[in-house]
Amino acid sequence: MNLNDVGYVLFRDCASKANAVHLHRPKYLSLGISFSHHAAFAIDKGYRELNVFRFIFFFGIVSMLFLLSGCNDTPNSIGKSSLNNGDNGVVMVDTFYATEHSSVRNLLITSSLDRFMIGKYKTYQAWTCLKFYSWPDSLIGVKITSAAIQLKSVSHFGDSLASFSMNIYRGMSNLFATDSLTYDSLNLNSVNSVHGVYYNSTPLSVQTFIPVGDTQSVTINILDTAMIREWFSTNTDSTDLNDGLVIRPTNSNIIKGFYSFYASDTSLTPTLYVTYIDTNGNEQSYSHKGGLSKYVSTVDQASLLTDKNLMYVQNGVSYRGLIAFDSLAKISTLWPVSVYRTVLQVTLNSSQSSGPILNPFVHDSMYALSVGTNGEGDGYAYALSQRSIDSSGRPVYSFEIRSMAVRWLANASIRKLALEGYNESSNFDLHAVYGSVPDKKLKPRIIITYSIQR
């Protein structure tokens, strides 16, 4: 058997111990280890005569080369090629500007919030629907002698020192039938009988005590207890005896926020206090905190959307900004690409936004939301803003929106996003944001870091 016929396996990488190179004699000789003709003949003779000597020689050569090779942390030619000329190519940073913008109305779902709104301020209005229910069985059918509702105030929008007043109406069967109730529907209250669709149009006889201040309680004494006695007549209301209340503001300079049944601190939730006569003829007191609430709101659109160059992100009503970036189609033609970072930046017009004097921001933050083809949030992605100041002193809001950009660049049918105010259902913050104006320093922009995949 000649050495030309002998294969040697050399372990070249002691870190992995897994890469093997199969070497024949010419490659072996290129390592600088050579044998004379006589040495080779002797080895061949040894292989023919002693299998043991052949094994020892083979093992010794492999061991020697393994030890001489050592550990090599430097990438080989393949590794260097991957590091220097990767599959993703050159990393690029580009800026793309908004191609169009608008302010769009959004339906608020307020039935699960920790507060509701009542009041009027300028052209803003907020009405509340309130319902207490699920009484203790021991109180079913008792004689109610007095009743009062207490609401705990938490916030205000407008003049905190302004007077606050309201009318209260008995709700009808449609009031809590759906979460899609709007201000327009409630305000119109289309009459198809002596009662309205949503509430009885005759106000209840009440007496209110309304102190000034965000942390004060409003007390509503219900003077005619006939409605309350009907409420307490059953827990299985099949004849619409208890469809709650509609609270409609009659003031003009303040909207108040009140804690709802979803407030984490139950001492702050709406409370119904009743006095009643028990079976022994004694007068007793009872307080009840179980119920439902929601509010509907509006603002005169013409008084809000006064500048076509701006997007109005209005909480409490609500309006959202909608921005299109069709300019990103340029990168889509290069797909597939690797997107490393994508930052949206928008600039605030402070003169038309919530200000520091009468109506300061409750939360000076916004969300960027992914939207579907109808322009409404689709739940795919969102990002919270970070606020900074530019060289001209204007507030700038930045959002990391990489996941949205990846979807857009994969040839999505729409390249738009929406701006939503932080906690938009719980306050009346207003961000007036520059849209697709000619001045690029003001125009919404996307700064994207990416590379073209090879």
Describe the structure.
Helices cover 16% and strands 36% of the residues. By secondary structure, the protein is an alpha+beta fold. It folds into 3 domains: 3-73, no CATH class; 92-106 and 318-452, Jelly Rolls; 115-298. The strands form 5 sheets. Strands 5, 6, 7, 8, 9, 10, 11, 12, 13, 14 and 15 form an 11-stranded antiparallel sheet that branches. A 5-stranded antiparallel sheet has the order 3-25-18-22-21, covered by helices on one side. A hairpin with a 5-residue loop joins strand 21 and strand 22. Helix 2 (37-49) packs across helix 3. The longest helix has 19 residues, at 51-69. The protein is elongated, with a radius of gyration of 38 Å. Mean pLDDT is 82; it is low at 1-47 and 62-85.
Architecture blueprint of SSEs:
Blueprint: E1 8-11, E2 20-23, H1 25-29, H2 37-49, H3 51-69, H4 77-84, E3 92-97, E4 100-105, E5 115-121, E6 124-132, E7 143-158, E8 166-170, H5 183-188, E9 206-209, E10 217-222, H6 226-231, E11 245-249, E12 253-259, E13 271-277, E14 283-288, E15 291-298, H7 301-304, E16 310-314, E17 319-324, H8 329-332, E18 337-347, E19 366-371, E20 377-384, E21 386-389, E22 395-400, H9 402-409, E23 416-421, E24 430-434, E25 445-452
Antiparallel strand pairs: 1-2, 3-25, 4-17, 5-6, 5-12, 6-11, 6-15, 7-10, 7-12, 7-13, 8-11, 9-10, 13-14, 16-24, 17-23, 18-22, 18-25, 19-20, 19-23, 21-22
